[in-house]
Structures are given as C-alpha cells and as structure tokens.
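USER:
Make up one protein:

ASSISTANT:
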Amino acid sequence: MTLERRLMAEWLGTFSLLATVVGSGIMAERLAGGNVAVALLGNTIPTGAILVVLITVFGPISGAHFNPAVTLSFALRREINTRIAGLYVVAQIFGGIVGVLAAHVMFEHPLIDPSMTARTGVGQWAGEFVATFGLVGTILACLKARPQAVPMAVGLYITAAYWFTSSTSFANPAVTIARGFSDTFAGIAPADVAAFIGVQLVAAVLATYFFKWLLDDPADA
C-alpha cells in the first residue's frame, strides 16, 4: 500500500472510532434517563463493536493502529520507521478531532465545546496505565499466537476495560485529545489530557518490552 493510502486508513479509522465513541455517548446519555450505568453500557458496546469492524477493514491497509500508543510500540519494535510513525500519529490525532466534530454535528451539539469533565487523580491514572498496558499486550500477544484474532480480541478487551478500569479505558492519546473537545458523556477536561497521555505512553513502552521478553522465542536470542 502507498503511504497516502496508509495515512488515509489511519485518519478514517480514527475518525470513525471517535465518531462512534462520542456519538454513542451522546445517544446513550439521552436515552438512559439519568442512569449512568445504562449510559456507560450504551457507550461501551458500540465502541467495542466498531473496533472489531475497523481493525478488520483497515488492518490490511495500515495495520489499523488508530492509536499513537500502538504506533509507538511498533516503532520501538522497528516494525515502522520513525518518519512514518510520526505521520501516523498526526493522521490519528486529526482524524479523531474531526470524528468528534462529526458526532457533534449529527446530534446538533455545539461544534466546539471543550469538556468540563474532570478525570484526574492516582486512581484514574492507574486505570489508564492498566488499560493501555493491557491493550498493547493484547495486540502483541495476539499477533504472536493468532493474528487473525486481533480485531475481536481488541474489541473485547476495550469492552471489558470500559468496566474494569477506573478511567473507563481511554488507552489512546489520540482519543484522549479528541475527547477533550467534547463536553458530553465521553469527554475529558483539557487540563487532564496531558497526564492521561503521559501515563498511556509510559504504559505502552513498558508493555512493549515486557511482552517482547514474555513472547520471544529463546531460540532467536
């Protein structure tokens, strides 16, 4: 695939992911009647489902990262060069922000509406560390054992992590940045974005090296 097609796949995939995350969050909140658990469930299921679809569709084109933490992991593994990794990240961030704006248009929400939802503190950061470490590990382990299972495994992991992590599993710097632009159920206050991203990147690096140790064939050493 040409670089242009790979970047478009990353842009469109991240656009679609954020349109789903924010759009389903708005719909879920409107229909839940104030029940936060029902709203979270309504946000969770579409997010996990769209990940299965997007990774299946765009995996053969770009690898279906849609996530700077995943791109960083593959760069550390020397499976993508630094220049292309940087372009992937730009495409992901831009696609995510436009996806949020598209969700706002669909639901007649103010187009530019920075979030007021505070997501900070040790518990939230620990949740993001666990979520991102587990996501990167899921991808790397599946690629080693059963590559065709990656779409389903990632979708199911994020579905579970929405509920077992205190942060509801952003696990993605591009998603975190984009959700800062949306004062809706899925939002995060811009002031809290940097800490989330820092924890996500640290978790991605540690997961990359841990799973390299765990999964590498000793005969290749």
User: Anything to note?
Assistant: The chain has one domain: 3-213.
